[in-house]
Amino acid sequence: MSRITVIGGTSYAGSAIVAEAAARGHEVTAYSRSLPDSPIPNVTYVQGDVSDESALAAVIEGADVVAAALAPRGALADSFRDVYRTIARLADAVKVPLIIVGGFSSLRPAPGAPRYVTDLSHAPAEYHAELTTVTALVADDLPATPVTLDWVFVSPAGKFGSHVPGERLGRYRIGDDVALQPKDGGEISGADYALGFVDVIEQGNHHRAHINLGY
Question: Residue 65 belongs to a domain with what CATH number?
Answer without folding.
Answer: 3.40.50.720
